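Dear Dr. H.,

I hope your travels went smoothly. While you were away I took the liberty of generating a structure for the chain from your last submission, since the lab meeting agenda had it listed for discussion. I wanted you to have the full record in hand beforehand rather than looking at slides cold. The sequence, exactly as received, is reproduced here:
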Amino acid sequence: MRKNKLFIIFTVVTILTFLGTAATCNLCGLVPVETTSEESEEEVSGGQRTETTSAGTEAEETEPADETPPADETPPADETPPEDEEPPEDEEPDESFGDAGGEGVVFNLKVNKNLSGYVTEDGSVLTRTVLIGDNASDKAVKGFISFDIRELFDSPIAIARISITNIVAAVDPTFADQMIIKVFDYGSSLNASAFAEGGTHLAAIPTAGLTSINISGDNLKALVEQCNNDGKDYFQLKLGLNDYSDDDGVADIFAINLDNAQLIVEQ
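The corresponding predicted structure, in token form, is as follows:
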């Protein structure tokens, strides 16, 4: 009987111990659960903070702050040229009108074609074409050239030169051995009376191989200057051969293109 009582007591103690242990375990299990819940809430709360922070970051990325220039940034000052920079000097105009050279003012004086031409011994007159020699009627032909000198005014003349190029010979105008050139003032029109003798001798040019005429020197300069000082508008030449005709019934002439005739004057 004693053993049975001891067994029963042992069994009851064991059961009570077991139940106490179970209760203790249950109690211990609740704390972690509650702690876990709190931690879960904290995690959730933290997640919200994280999401809020993320949302704020996205907002910051989406809405950048207003850009303003630095306070010390100022617009560039107007550019002004240096005070010591001077404007370029005006260039002096080129007063040269020809190619005669020298340091003075050069005038390349052209022909007035309406006052230039030829006159025949029998009274025929034609302007704008210059012929010298004889015609088919064996009548002498004289040429006339008028240079316009109104540009010269009253200034002194340093150099004067006549240049006539590309002279053409037809048949045989060399029946006369010289071409006589005179300065002859025939005025503002060319007519038959200009054929008559008269004028100031300027030059005698050999006819053999004649293709150009070049005259210069003090005599020409003095004659041009005299004409200019007298207030003449034109410096005029008469050209003829030293023999009237060779009586062969054929025109023998020198022909001058007025575009190739120039009076060059340097003042």
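Two observations you may find useful: The helical segments are 2-62, 218-229. Residues 83 and 89 are 17 Å apart (CA to CA).

With kind regards,
E. W.
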